[in-house]
Amino acid sequence: MTIESPKLTNMQDAMDYIASRFVFDDASYPLLKKLTPEERQDFAVNHSAQHMAKQLGKIATHLEDKDHGGTGNPDLLKAALVKEFINILRLSELLNISAEELLSSVPEYMK
User: Fold this and answer.
1) Under 8 Å CB-to-CB from 25, ≥6 apart: which residues?
2) Any residues with CB less than 8 A from the CB of 80 and at least 6 apart, and which?
3) What would the DSSP string read from start to end of the chain?
4) How far is residue 43's CA from residue 54's CA, in Å, rounded to a whole number?
5) In sequence order, what are the residues at sequence separation of 6 or more whose Cβ sits closer than 8 angstroms to the Cβ of residue 108?
6) In this predicted model, what pLDDT tens digit does every residue of 37-75 receive, in sequence order?
7) Burial of 43 by CB count in 10 Å (0-12 exposed, 13-18 middle, 19+ buried)?
8) Which residue of 4, 33, 35, 77 could cross-link 62, Cys pair, CB 3.0 to 4.6 Å?
9) How many CB atoms are located within 10 Å of the residue 67 CB?
10) Which residues, 6 or more positions from 16, have their beta carbon under 8 angstroms from its beta carbon?
11) Is pLDDT larger for residue 54 or for residue 2?
12) pLDDT band at 19 (very low <50, low <70, confident <90, very high)
């Protein structure tokens, strides 16, 4: 059985879809049963940051290969960039930062 991918038309839809697919619950993370709500939030943020670091490593692998005259791996780079985007949106949702707030904050942080 294949899962039909939704057509995501805006960032908030993407955030909502990602949050529905990557849930921090006791079934997926048994350690959560022992944690307070604040500790559960910290765990989720930390776990998301670990996934972000993992993708940055893949991006660095591609770039480091190119630095040494290699071709890198454009497919790996694209996948890592998309997964990093997913991680950013999931972390934003965990921190109660809406897509609208993310977008409206871009000019402020571009300074």
Assistant:
1) 32
2) 55, 56, 58, 59, 62
3) --PPPP---SHHHHHHHHHHHS---TTT-GGGGGS-HHHHHHHHHHHHHHHHHHHHHHHHHHHHHHHTT----HHHHHHHHHHHHHHHHHHHHHTT--HHHHHHHHHHHT-
4) 17
5) none
6) 999 999 999 999 999 999 999 999 999 999 999 999 999
7) middle
8) 77
9) 10
10) 93
11) 54
12) very high
Closest alpha carbon to 87 in 28, 44, 37 = 44
Domain boundaries, the chain: 52-97
Structure tokens at 20: 């529905």
